[in-house]
Design goal:
By secondary structure, this protein is an alpha+beta fold. It folds into 2 domains: about 10-85, Beta Barrel (Elongation Factor Tu (Ef-tu), domain 3), CATH 2.40.30; about 105-190, Beta Barrel (Elongation Factor Tu (Ef-tu), domain 3), CATH 2.40.30. The chain is built from 6 helices and 12 strands. The protein has helices spanning about 65-70, 125-130, 160-165, 185-190, 195-200, 205-210, and strands at about 10-15, 20-25, 40-45, 45-55, 55-65, 80-85, 105-115, 115-125, 135-140, 145-150, 155-160, 175-180. A 6-stranded antiparallel barrel has the order 1-2-5-4-3-6. Strands 7-8-11-10-9-12 form a 6-stranded antiparallel beta barrel. Strand 10 (about 145-150) and strand 11 form a beta hairpin. It is globular and about 60 Å long.
Amino acid sequence: MFTGIVEEVGTVRSVQKGSTSSFIEIQAEKVLSDVHTGDSIAVNGVCLTVVEFTAGSFKADVMNETLSRSSLGSLKSGSPVDLERAMAAGGRFGGHIVSGHIDGTGTITDIKKDGIAHWYTVTAPPEIMRYIVEKGSIAIDGISLTVAKVTDTSFSVSIIPHTAAQTVLAHKRPGDIVNLENDIIGKYIEKLMKPAEETKSGGITMEFLARNGF
């Protein structure tokens, strides 16, 4: 599990693409301070497993499923990436619950300055937009952010200078693809509100509530 608080921006050293998977090497510093083979590191919001590491970089395998559902397939040597280690049990929870299993991608359509901040507008497909609410949480490339505005097809976030400077957002431009992970709580609530035995009859009914003590 992650928190969406990016620890550092790493740099892709190399990407080796195969027919069924890819192999990526990332230059980093902070996230390697206590790294072990098998550790989880979120790369632009995607949870990857460390398979090899040196004093200045780590390597991870990237499956086809990950390539098809994320923007990792477009990474190349020199690309900056957001990095976060899995949350330590005794650490501060500064962001929100982030699994590192993204729901899909969106496209930055507009970036505009607003005082010291910048507004980023992202378009996303309906299956992602349905879980996005104003003042709720969203992870963009692994960054825990608060949704400031929502329309039927897009949402906007307001980014302070510190966040932009410490993440890949400073490198983003309109047209760029970003990884998106919805707030996991909303997805679980939806699932629990539609138990399998009730879905065929239309979901929650008065009879269902009565049977379960409500």
